[in-house]
Design goal:
228 residues; mainly alpha; Tetracycline Repressor, domain 2
């Protein structure tokens, strides 16, 4: 899987960026340092001016790649969902049994993130923390409907669709496959957030991923045994 991922290029909607950051060393540096800085200070405190100072470049050079920091956040979130989608596809492609395939998919999208050496300029662990803490800020905006029409969230929606189809493969008569699929993705982020900040209101504690919870939730909803 690792060798295959090293050849993968995650394609982001070209309307999100002015110039593809993957096309130059400066662009990759912008992405790399943005992840580190947003993780350090939060999205609200992050600015292109601060980023320019960090990378030793003019603020104007960053605008050659991204129109604003909202678009940069959309780029990061799109990249993350695309990266997660590739992992899901590779990990489940050879599994024939629909129940086992769904179980593996849930594991992929709910587990604690590990760094992927295939993408040296992106720290997936830090990016995952940003997704957990900041993802909702990419779509809780007045412009969300217009941005949705422009295809800014297509990768995330495609990932939901993949999980939905796996749910339907297990139980074609289940009434809420899309709702369950999106609940698994969004719920995993929320449980990881609770695990880090509000431990008293989650059963997913420090050394326990939400994976088993969502496997049990999903398989119970489908009236199947969570363990085989």
């Amino acid at each position: 899987m690792e060798r295959l991922l090293q050849q993968v290029q995650i394609k982001i909607n070209e309307k999100i960026f002015v110039k593809n950051p993957e096309s130059s060393k400066l662009g990759k540096r912008i992405v790399e340092e943005t992840i580190i800085m947003i993780n350090e200070m939060g999205f609200e405190s992050f600015t292109f001016k601060k980023l320019g100072t960090r990378i030793g470049s003019n603020e104007s050079s960053i605008y050659r790649y991204f129109e604003n920091k909202h678009k940069l956040l959309l780029y990061l979130t799109s990249w993350y969902w695309g990266w997660l989608e590739y992992q899901l596809v590779f990990a489940t492609n050879s599994i024939a049994d629909p129940s086992e395939k769904l179980r593996k998919a849930i594991e992929i999208v709910t587990r604690t993130t590990e760094e992927d050496s295939a993408f040296s300029h992106i720290n997936e662990i830090l990016l995952n923390k940003i997704i957990i803490n900041e993802y909702s800020k990419s779509y809780l905006t007045k412009e969300v409907d217009d941005e949705n029409k422009e295809g800014y969230f297509v990768i995330y929606k495609r990932l939901v669709t993949r999980i939905r189809e796996m749910i339907q493969a297990v139980d074609a008569k289940y009434t809420y496959p899309s709702s369950l699929a999106s609940t698994i993705l969004e719920g995993a982020l929320h449980q990881h957030f609770l695990k880090d900040h509000f431990t008293s209101i989650t059963d997913c504690r420090e050394n326990s991923d939400p994976t088993q919870y969502f496997i049990q939730l999903t398989f119970s909803s489908l009236n199947l045994k969570p363990h085989g």
